[in-house]
Design goal:
single chain, alpha+beta, D-Maltodextrin-Binding Protein, domain 2, 3 domains, three-stranded antiparallel β-sheet, 15 strands
Protein backbone atom coordinates (compact mmCIF):
# COMPACT_ATOMS: atom_id res chain seq x y z
CA UNK A 1 0.00 0.00 0.00
CA UNK A 2 1.48 3.37 -0.94
CA UNK A 3 1.79 5.86 1.91
CA UNK A 4 -0.58 8.54 0.60
CA UNK A 5 -0.60 12.18 1.62
CA UNK A 6 -4.15 13.33 2.43
CA UNK A 7 -3.42 16.85 1.20
CA UNK A 8 -2.41 15.52 -2.25
CA UNK A 9 -5.54 13.40 -2.38
CA UNK A 10 -7.58 16.46 -1.40
CA UNK A 11 -6.06 18.43 -4.28
CA UNK A 12 -6.88 15.65 -6.75
CA UNK A 13 -10.49 15.43 -5.57
CA UNK A 14 -10.85 19.20 -5.80
CA UNK A 15 -9.78 19.06 -9.46
CA UNK A 16 -12.32 16.31 -10.08
CA UNK A 17 -15.16 18.20 -8.40
CA UNK A 18 -14.30 21.65 -9.77
CA UNK A 19 -13.48 20.46 -13.28
CA UNK A 20 -10.04 22.02 -13.55
CA UNK A 21 -6.84 23.05 -11.80
CA UNK A 22 -7.61 26.77 -11.64
CA UNK A 23 -11.05 26.24 -10.12
CA UNK A 24 -9.63 23.70 -7.66
CA UNK A 25 -6.93 26.14 -6.56
CA UNK A 26 -9.54 28.85 -6.01
CA UNK A 27 -11.69 26.45 -4.05
CA UNK A 28 -8.86 25.37 -1.73
CA UNK A 29 -7.32 28.84 -1.49
CA UNK A 30 -3.88 27.81 -2.80
CA UNK A 31 -1.85 28.44 -5.93
CA UNK A 32 -2.51 26.51 -9.13
CA UNK A 33 1.10 25.27 -9.13
CA UNK A 34 0.49 23.66 -5.73
CA UNK A 35 -2.51 21.74 -7.10
CA UNK A 36 -0.53 20.60 -10.16
CA UNK A 37 2.39 19.47 -8.02
CA UNK A 38 0.12 17.57 -5.63
CA UNK A 39 -1.62 15.69 -8.45
CA UNK A 40 1.69 14.89 -10.15
CA UNK A 41 3.13 13.59 -6.88
CA UNK A 42 0.04 11.47 -6.28
CA UNK A 43 0.26 9.98 -9.77
CA UNK A 44 3.95 9.22 -9.26
CA UNK A 45 3.28 7.58 -5.90
CA UNK A 46 0.50 5.39 -7.35
CA UNK A 47 2.34 4.69 -10.58
CA UNK A 48 -0.64 5.57 -12.76
CA UNK A 49 -2.16 8.52 -14.60
CA UNK A 50 -5.25 9.93 -12.89
CA UNK A 51 -6.10 12.88 -15.11
CA UNK A 52 -5.83 13.58 -18.83
CA UNK A 53 -4.98 17.22 -19.46
CA UNK A 54 -5.89 18.97 -22.72
CA UNK A 55 -5.83 22.63 -23.69
CA UNK A 56 -9.56 22.89 -22.93
CA UNK A 57 -10.44 20.44 -20.20
CA UNK A 58 -9.27 17.96 -17.60
CA UNK A 59 -10.76 14.47 -17.77
CA UNK A 60 -10.25 11.56 -15.37
CA UNK A 61 -8.77 8.28 -16.48
CA UNK A 62 -10.43 5.02 -15.43
CA UNK A 63 -8.04 4.90 -12.46
CA UNK A 64 -8.86 8.50 -11.61
CA UNK A 65 -12.61 7.83 -11.65
CA UNK A 66 -12.17 4.81 -9.40
CA UNK A 67 -9.99 6.70 -6.93
CA UNK A 68 -12.42 9.62 -6.75
CA UNK A 69 -15.37 7.29 -6.24
CA UNK A 70 -13.68 5.30 -3.48
CA UNK A 71 -11.80 8.09 -1.68
CA UNK A 72 -14.12 11.09 -1.64
CA UNK A 73 -16.37 10.03 1.25
CA UNK A 74 -13.61 8.63 3.52
CA UNK A 75 -11.50 11.75 3.04
CA UNK A 76 -14.50 13.98 3.75
CA UNK A 77 -15.26 12.06 6.94
CA UNK A 78 -11.62 12.28 8.02
CA UNK A 79 -11.61 16.06 7.49
CA UNK A 80 -14.87 16.42 9.41
CA UNK A 81 -13.43 14.42 12.32
CA UNK A 82 -10.30 16.58 12.35
CA UNK A 83 -12.42 19.75 12.22
CA UNK A 84 -14.56 18.61 15.13
CA UNK A 85 -11.48 17.73 17.18
CA UNK A 86 -9.86 21.09 16.43
CA UNK A 87 -13.02 22.99 17.29
CA UNK A 88 -13.25 21.21 20.63
CA UNK A 89 -9.85 22.57 21.58
CA UNK A 90 -9.69 25.95 19.87
CA UNK A 91 -13.22 26.92 18.86
CA UNK A 92 -14.14 27.58 15.25
CA UNK A 93 -11.17 28.32 12.99
CA UNK A 94 -10.38 28.56 9.30
CA UNK A 95 -12.57 30.27 6.67
CA UNK A 96 -16.32 30.02 6.17
CA UNK A 97 -17.18 30.87 2.57
CA UNK A 98 -20.80 31.76 1.82
CA UNK A 99 -22.87 33.51 -0.81
CA UNK A 100 -26.17 35.38 -0.58
CA UNK A 101 -28.29 37.77 -2.68
CA UNK A 102 -26.80 41.25 -2.70
CA UNK A 103 -29.84 43.11 -1.35
CA UNK A 104 -30.45 40.61 1.45
CA UNK A 105 -26.76 40.78 2.36
CA UNK A 106 -26.91 44.56 2.67
CA UNK A 107 -30.25 44.83 4.45
CA UNK A 108 -30.24 41.84 6.78
CA UNK A 109 -27.27 39.50 6.62
CA UNK A 110 -24.30 41.84 7.15
CA UNK A 111 -25.10 42.78 10.78
CA UNK A 112 -25.97 39.17 11.60
CA UNK A 113 -22.63 37.97 10.28
CA UNK A 114 -20.87 40.66 12.31
CA UNK A 115 -22.54 39.31 15.45
CA UNK A 116 -21.57 35.76 14.51
CA UNK A 117 -17.97 36.83 13.98
CA UNK A 118 -17.84 38.38 17.44
CA UNK A 119 -18.88 35.01 18.86
CA UNK A 120 -16.23 33.16 16.87
CA UNK A 121 -13.22 35.48 16.47
CA UNK A 122 -10.99 32.67 15.21
CA UNK A 123 -13.15 32.08 12.13
CA UNK A 124 -12.74 34.19 8.98
CA UNK A 125 -15.84 34.99 6.92
CA UNK A 126 -15.76 35.26 3.12
CA UNK A 127 -19.12 36.57 1.83
CA UNK A 128 -19.86 36.82 -1.89
CA UNK A 129 -22.97 38.96 -2.44
CA UNK A 130 -24.56 38.23 -5.80
CA UNK A 131 -27.97 37.49 -7.27
CA UNK A 132 -26.40 34.73 -9.41
CA UNK A 133 -26.96 31.12 -8.31
CA UNK A 134 -23.39 29.90 -7.88
CA UNK A 135 -22.09 26.33 -7.94
CA UNK A 136 -21.30 25.70 -4.26
CA UNK A 137 -19.17 22.60 -4.76
CA UNK A 138 -17.37 23.75 -7.89
CA UNK A 139 -16.55 27.19 -6.49
CA UNK A 140 -15.72 26.10 -2.97
CA UNK A 141 -18.58 27.56 -0.95
CA UNK A 142 -19.60 26.15 2.42
CA UNK A 143 -23.18 27.37 2.18
CA UNK A 144 -25.54 29.79 0.46
CA UNK A 145 -28.58 31.83 1.45
CA UNK A 146 -31.31 31.61 -1.18
CA UNK A 147 -34.71 33.24 -1.41
CA UNK A 148 -38.07 32.21 -2.81
CA UNK A 149 -38.47 29.05 -4.87
CA UNK A 150 -35.51 26.66 -4.73
CA UNK A 151 -34.23 24.85 -7.78
CA UNK A 152 -33.89 21.08 -7.67
CA UNK A 153 -30.36 20.06 -6.68
CA UNK A 154 -28.32 17.57 -4.70
CA UNK A 155 -27.71 20.16 -1.98
CA UNK A 156 -29.05 19.92 1.54
CA UNK A 157 -31.42 22.69 2.57
CA UNK A 158 -32.91 24.14 5.72
CA UNK A 159 -35.63 26.74 5.95
CA UNK A 160 -34.60 29.75 7.99
CA UNK A 161 -37.67 31.95 7.82
CA UNK A 162 -39.92 33.96 5.56
CA UNK A 163 -40.12 37.43 4.10
CA UNK A 164 -43.11 39.42 2.89
CA UNK A 165 -43.66 40.55 -0.68
CA UNK A 166 -45.07 44.03 -1.15
CA UNK A 167 -46.63 45.66 -4.22
CA UNK A 168 -45.37 49.25 -4.42
CA UNK A 169 -45.32 52.26 -6.72
CA UNK A 170 -44.07 55.83 -6.67
CA UNK A 171 -46.58 58.44 -5.42
CA UNK A 172 -46.50 60.29 -8.74
CA UNK A 173 -47.46 57.15 -10.65
CA UNK A 174 -50.29 56.33 -8.26
CA UNK A 175 -51.66 59.86 -8.45
CA UNK A 176 -51.61 59.83 -12.26
CA UNK A 177 -53.88 56.78 -12.44
CA UNK A 178 -57.34 55.82 -11.31
CA UNK A 179 -57.52 54.55 -7.76
CA UNK A 180 -56.81 50.85 -7.39
CA UNK A 181 -59.64 49.28 -5.37
CA UNK A 182 -59.34 45.65 -6.38
CA UNK A 183 -56.46 43.63 -7.91
CA UNK A 184 -58.00 43.66 -11.39
CA UNK A 185 -57.58 47.45 -11.44
CA UNK A 186 -53.82 46.86 -11.77
CA UNK A 187 -53.95 45.02 -15.10
CA UNK A 188 -53.47 48.12 -17.32
CA UNK A 189 -50.65 49.50 -15.13
CA UNK A 190 -47.02 49.59 -16.25
CA UNK A 191 -44.94 47.04 -14.37
CA UNK A 192 -41.25 46.60 -13.58
CA UNK A 193 -40.47 42.87 -13.56
CA UNK A 194 -37.51 41.03 -12.06
CA UNK A 195 -35.97 38.83 -14.74
CA UNK A 196 -35.58 35.19 -13.79
CA UNK A 197 -38.63 34.87 -11.53
CA UNK A 198 -41.11 32.34 -12.88
CA UNK A 199 -44.04 34.34 -11.48
CA UNK A 200 -42.69 37.86 -11.96
CA UNK A 201 -45.83 39.00 -13.82
CA UNK A 202 -48.35 36.82 -12.01
CA UNK A 203 -49.35 38.44 -8.72
CA UNK A 204 -51.77 36.71 -6.36
CA UNK A 205 -53.51 38.96 -3.85
CA UNK A 206 -55.53 37.75 -0.87
CA UNK A 207 -57.74 39.99 1.29
CA UNK A 208 -56.20 40.81 4.67
CA UNK A 209 -59.60 40.18 6.26
CA UNK A 210 -59.79 36.70 4.71
CA UNK A 211 -61.31 35.39 1.54
CA UNK A 212 -60.39 33.92 -1.82
CA UNK A 213 -57.12 34.82 -3.49
CA UNK A 214 -57.30 36.83 -6.70
CA UNK A 215 -54.65 36.37 -9.43
CA UNK A 216 -53.58 39.28 -11.63
CA UNK A 217 -51.39 39.01 -14.73
CA UNK A 218 -49.55 42.13 -15.84
CA UNK A 219 -47.58 43.08 -18.92
CA UNK A 220 -44.06 44.33 -18.21
CA UNK A 221 -43.04 47.81 -19.24
CA UNK A 222 -39.47 47.14 -18.13
CA UNK A 223 -37.38 44.20 -16.95
CA UNK A 224 -34.25 44.14 -14.80
CA UNK A 225 -32.01 41.31 -13.63
CA UNK A 226 -31.50 42.62 -10.07
CA UNK A 227 -33.97 43.63 -7.39
CA UNK A 228 -31.97 46.81 -6.74
CA UNK A 229 -32.62 48.06 -10.27
CA UNK A 230 -36.31 47.17 -9.95
CA UNK A 231 -36.40 49.25 -6.76
CA UNK A 232 -34.70 52.22 -8.43
CA UNK A 233 -37.09 52.12 -11.38
CA UNK A 234 -40.11 51.82 -9.10
CA UNK A 235 -38.90 54.91 -7.22
CA UNK A 236 -38.57 56.71 -10.56
CA UNK A 237 -42.20 55.94 -11.40
CA UNK A 238 -41.53 53.59 -14.32
CA UNK A 239 -44.05 51.07 -13.04
CA UNK A 240 -45.49 49.09 -10.17
CA UNK A 241 -43.25 46.43 -8.65
CA UNK A 242 -43.34 43.58 -6.16
CA UNK A 243 -40.32 43.63 -3.84
CA UNK A 244 -39.28 42.02 -0.54
CA UNK A 245 -40.44 43.83 2.58
CA UNK A 246 -36.88 44.28 3.88
CA UNK A 247 -35.98 46.21 0.71
CA UNK A 248 -38.86 48.70 0.74
CA UNK A 249 -39.37 49.30 4.48
CA UNK A 250 -37.46 52.59 4.54
CA UNK A 251 -39.06 53.81 1.28
CA UNK A 252 -42.54 53.16 2.65
CA UNK A 253 -41.71 54.89 5.91
CA UNK A 254 -40.35 57.96 4.11
CA UNK A 255 -43.16 58.12 1.54
CA UNK A 256 -40.82 57.60 -1.40
CA UNK A 257 -42.94 54.57 -2.29
CA UNK A 258 -46.51 53.68 -1.45
CA UNK A 259 -48.06 50.30 -0.93
CA UNK A 260 -50.61 49.29 -3.56
CA UNK A 261 -53.82 47.72 -2.24
CA UNK A 262 -52.99 48.02 1.49
CA UNK A 263 -56.03 45.90 2.33
CA UNK A 264 -54.62 42.98 0.38
CA UNK A 265 -51.49 40.86 0.83
CA UNK A 266 -49.19 38.84 -1.40
CA UNK A 267 -47.83 35.39 -0.45
CA UNK A 268 -44.78 35.17 1.79
CA UNK A 269 -41.63 33.60 0.37
CA UNK A 270 -39.04 31.39 2.00
CA UNK A 271 -35.48 32.09 3.14
CA UNK A 272 -33.26 29.01 2.93
CA UNK A 273 -29.73 27.95 3.63
CA UNK A 274 -28.33 25.33 1.25
CA UNK A 275 -25.06 23.46 1.61
CA UNK A 276 -23.26 20.42 0.15
CA UNK A 277 -24.66 17.09 1.30
CA UNK A 278 -22.44 15.21 3.74
CA UNK A 279 -22.99 12.92 6.70
CA UNK A 280 -21.44 15.31 9.20
CA UNK A 281 -21.18 18.95 8.00
CA UNK A 282 -18.18 20.84 9.38
CA UNK A 283 -18.71 22.45 12.78
CA UNK A 284 -18.38 25.93 11.27
CA UNK A 285 -21.28 25.19 8.88
CA UNK A 286 -23.62 23.78 11.53
CA UNK A 287 -22.76 26.69 13.86
CA UNK A 288 -23.63 29.25 11.18
CA UNK A 289 -26.87 27.48 10.23
CA UNK A 290 -28.01 27.25 13.85
CA UNK A 291 -27.12 30.89 14.45
CA UNK A 292 -29.07 32.10 11.41
CA UNK A 293 -32.06 29.91 12.28
CA UNK A 294 -32.24 31.66 15.66
CA UNK A 295 -31.56 35.15 14.31
CA UNK A 296 -33.82 35.31 11.23
CA UNK A 297 -37.50 35.86 12.06
CA UNK A 298 -40.20 33.78 10.47
CA UNK A 299 -41.61 30.30 10.32
CA UNK A 300 -39.00 27.62 9.91
CA UNK A 301 -39.37 25.03 7.16
CA UNK A 302 -38.45 21.41 7.71
CA UNK A 303 -34.90 20.38 6.83
CA UNK A 304 -34.56 18.26 3.70
Amino acid sequence: MPDLDADKLRSFLAVMEAGGFTAAARRLGVGKSRISADVAALEARLGTTLLRRTTRQVLPTEAGEALARDAAQPLRELQEALDRAACTQRGLTGTLRLTAPADYSNAVLAPLLAAFSRRHPGLRLDLVSTDAVLDLVGEGFDLAIRMGELRDSNLKQRGLGRFGQVAVAAPALMESRAEVLIPADLEPWPCVALTGLSNALHWIFAPEAGGAAVPVRLSPSHRASTAQVVLQWARAGLGAAVLPDFMVASDLASGRLRRILPGWRLPHAGIYVVYPAMRHPPAKVTAMIDFLADAIPGTLVEEA
